[in-house]
Design goal:
single chain, 598 residues, 20% strand, alpha+beta, 4-stranded antiparallel beta sheet, 27 strands
């Protein structure tokens, strides 16, 4: 593997293709590690804070552990059911490993980044570089070495401390700041720990004990991320569950992705900040977690969505910060961005109304009810969501794809599915007539306005095309799988939007599907669920297997997959893709609910 480019001022870790990045996450923030052992992205102290390592999007700040041998190749893997990553480099002398993790579960006001350099049968010779730079690289630090060999400093509002690097020296970094450089040789069979702490306030006097932090992290992952039972892809399902847990904060909010502004299409302006909690994505994750027996993750989703419904009612936003705050409006940063993109912070979703979020919320709450985990406040949230649907279902909305406002068919059918799901709960008996009547009314009007002449659903009354999002409402119970409208819609998506078992959202124009955008992995897993519901187990597994392979060595999925170049596109990792993979792995292990239709 080529070594990082260097100049007289130090190394320059250029961005890599997304498939080569691994994720560390502790629920409160995440870090991406590149193939040179470089932390290319991490915001601190929270998901939506400014980045302290931002080379991924054209900023600066460096923390790298790289073999001294320039002729090395990269690899690595996660420890099962965790986001503990083991970087593994093969050098001329033999393997060099670095065990990496954010101490788990994370504290909202303190980042603890653990790195353990491990030597197996030969010495591990590495170069370690550190330069934290807050405000997306704008704030340089001034490190100080204490008598005990600990390094400390400040970058913007962040205080930091680095232990295990007493022999480091300061040099001039690529962006003109003070770069700490350390060369280490770990003898065969040994290891060496490095611990980086960051906090918006002064750090405790006592530094983190690496051995204790590692033991606590290992035990917490084992406790909070047990293997899902009865899936057709045990290792991938377990990994998907770990990713979802790593993206979920202590307050229950789950970010849509760990990153911002990674382009979906080079030069097309389609790059967004996804470091916020989308209600829809949270519901997908909660439903998948319930099927996997991950009650903690289900409870987190229910708690977060409940709080937002009770807080905002008919003014529910599509997305919030993980603490339940408002998503900031979009603005640009003075950075070049990831190649092919531009840097934007914030998201215009804060100005949108998305009707389907109420339907998805009802589906989540009904799932919790079937699991015996729906309590007082959540029942109040059910009533709030039902009242909102009654009031708002005739209003145009931006829909699941966040485009122009229309009467999107998916949004209405999602509400039908949610109403029907709640109506089946024992605690809803007094409201069954109301819930059923409302669901029937919405379905009748949607059928009148949005059913195509060939019997399938249209995207909207004035949008005759096929939309892959229309697969999911029937899976969730809006209509039976055997209903002619469901059967016709599945057939239309299969024929018009699927290519080699990859699925696209909808047809943008006359161009081939793959030229307009990447295959949407979420839709590929939706198709697997729909084929399973149709009684087509072989087709279901084909879609599942094709889409679960659309990742890099770390097993992380982005929103889109470029099937021509076989590359990931968009922010990483995309939570709702991992959620649908997890749900598919469980559902496809069950018997198909209806006989084959074809």
């Amino acid at each position: 593997m080529p070594t990082p480019e260097t100049s007289g001022s130090g190394p320059d870790f250029a961005p890599h293709v997304l498939r080569e990045y691994a994720l560390l996450a502790d629920g409160e923030r995440g870090a991406l590690i590149g193939p040179h052992g470089d932390i290319a992205w991490m915001c601190a102290p929270r998901w939506d804070s400014d980045a302290v390592f931002s080379a991924l999007v054209g900023g600066s700040g460096t923390y790298a552990v790289t073999p001294l041998d320039p002729r090395h190749v990269w690899g690595g893997s996660y420890e099962t059911g965790t986001l503990i990553w083991r970087s593994r480099f093969i050098t001329g002398e033999g393997p060099v490993e670095c065990r990496e993790a954010l101490a788990f579960p994370g504290a909202s006001d303190r980042v603890v980044l653990l790195r353990r350099i491990v030597a197996r049968d030969c010495p591990a010779r590495v170069r370690v570089l550190l330069e934290p730079r807050g405000a997306f690289g704008a704030d340089a630090g001034h490190p100080t070495r204490r008598p005990d060999g600990t390094w400390s400093g400040r970058t913007g509002p962040l205080h930091w401390r680095w232990t295990g690097a007493a022999a480091a020296r300061t040099t001039r970094g690529p962006a003109g700041g003070a770069l700490l450089t350390l060369e280490l040789t770990v003898p065969p069979g040994g290891h060496h720990d490095l611990v980086l702490e960051l906090s918006p306030g002064p750090l405790p006097a006592e530094a983190v004990c690496s051995a204790t932090a590692w033991a606590t992290t290992e035990a917490a992952w084992a406790r909070e991320c047990p293997a899902p039972p009865g899936t057709i892809a045990p290792r991938d399902a377990h990994h998907a569950l770990a990713v979802l847990r790593g993206l979920t904060s202590s307050g229950g909010g789950m970010v849509a992705a760990a990153t911002m502004c990674l382009p979906e299409r080079a030069g097309a302006g389609r790059n967004y900040d996804y470091r916020y909690a989308w209600i829809r994505d949270q519901c997908y994750a909660g439903i998948a977690a319930a099927g996997a027996g991950a009650t903690g993750l289900l409870d987190s989703a229910v708690g977060f969505v409940t709080a937002r419904l009770l807080q905002d009612g008919t003014e529910l936003k599509p997305a919030y910060t993980v603490t339940g705050g408002a998503v900031p409006s979009e603005r640009t940063l003075d950075l070049p961005g990831y190649p092919g993109g531009t840097d934007k912070i914030g998201n215009w979703v804060n100005q949108q109304f998305q009707l389907d979020t109420y339907g998805e919320a009802l589906q989540l709450l009904a799932t919790a009810g079937r699991s015996g985990r729906l309590e007082g406040d959540s029942w109040r949230a059910v009533h709030t969501a039902v009242a909102a649907v009654e009031q708002l279902w005739m209003r145009p909305d931006a829909g699941i794809w966040e485009t122009e406002e229309r009467h999107w068919t998916h949004s209405r059918l999602s509400c039908v599915a949610g109403l029907r799901a709640v109506a089946q709960l024992p605690g809803a008996r007094a409201q069954v007539a109301r819930l059923t009547a409302l669901a029937d009314t919405i379905l009748a009007e949607t059928t009148r306005t949005s059913l195509h002449a060939d019997g399938r659903w249209k995207r909207a009354p004035d949008q005759a095309g096929v939309d892959a999002a229309l697969l999911l409402p029937a899976v969730r119970g809006a209509l039976p799988g055997s209903d002619p409208r469901t059967v016709a819609t599945v057939r239309a998506v299969r024929e018009e939007l699927a290519r080699d078992e990859y699925v696209y959202r909808f047809r943008h124009d006359a161009r081939p599907l793959a030229r307009a955008e990447g295959a949407f992995l979420l839709c590929g897993f939706m198709m697997a669920l729909a084929e399973h519901q149709q009684g087509n187990p072989v087709r279901a597994v084909r879609f599942f297997e094709r889409n679960r392979a659309a990742c890099g060595p770390p097993g992380l999925f982005s929103e889109e997959y470029d099937i021509i170049q076989r590359q990931l596109r968009g922010n990483l990792p995309q939570a709702f893709v991992h959620a649908l993979l997890l749900e598919c792995a469980g559902r496809l292990g069950q018997e198909c609910p209806v006989p084959p239709t074809e």
